[in-house]
From TrEMBL:
It catalyses: (2R)-3-phospho-glyceroyl phosphate = (2R)-2,3-bisphosphoglycerate + H(+); (2R)-2-phosphoglycerate = (2R)-3-phosphoglycerate. Keywords: Glycolysis, Isomerase. It comes from the Eukaryota. InterPro entries: His_Pase_superF_clade-1, His_PPase_superfam, Phosphogly_mut1. Belongs to the phosphoglycerate mutase family. BPG-dependent PGAM subfamily. This is Bisphosphoglycerate mutase. The active site is at residues 11, 89. The record marks 188 as: Transition state stabilizer. It comes from Clupea harengus.
Amino acid sequence: MSKHKLFLLRHGEGAWIKENRFCSWVDQKLSEAGIVEAQECGRLLKEQGYKFDRVFTSLLSRSIHTAWLVIEAMGEEWVPVTKSWRLNERHYGALIGLNRAEMALNHGEEQVKQWRRSYDITPPPIDESHPYFSEIYNDRRYSTCDVPTEQLPRSESLKEVLDRLLPYWNEVIVPEIKSGHTVLISAHGNSCRALLKHIENISAKDIVGVTLPTGTPVLLELDEDLKPVKPRQLLGDQEKIQAAIKKVEDQGKVNASSK
Ligand SMILES: O=C(OP(=O)(O)O)[C@H](O)COP(=O)(O)O
């Protein structure tokens, strides 16, 4: 029987989604469309009668703004919001800022798919010569983390995302859920995929086929041990959701719309 409801949300569209660039730890804001997506998401959740007691976000503005817009649209701005780097998007290393369609042209679509969706392939690391290195590592927010800046990732596979996320999940989020609180996690495509892999016990092979669109809440109904009691539900118009998933998948093809 379902005892707990947990909501995972990939933030609304970010500015670089239009440009088809790997965004990752670069702090791009929501686009105009992303703002609307987050507001519509909040309205949908309200209409369906859901309420949150705790909200968790990454340290990246797009996940924080999405959370704010959602709870504002629900008329629930008072709900506590807690932020951690451990919910940040996967660190895409040297791929940060690159265009996916150009990458597919240069390295092949299959290689780009492996970089994007495989479980244990780590992209090449970012180094000091990378155009976004200092913007990321000199940002004041990363001096507040529970590890020194030098120990923050320089590139991550999905497995490595799960490794850094799990302590936070187990020590901070799980106790909130078990105490009876309904939790929204407003995070990113791959930090949500890592968490889904863990909660739903998805195999390394099958996680390759899991893609999350922006601004679409994923409802997980869990038993007292936080095991799913039914398949995950992506809330909203199912046709639009399927089209949005395909659009994300197609970003890694040579003929993707924005190059
Ligand atoms: O920043 C990113 O994800 P986000 O938009 O969920 O924060 C990544 O660049 C997503 O890229 P991917 O869909 O190729 O894994």
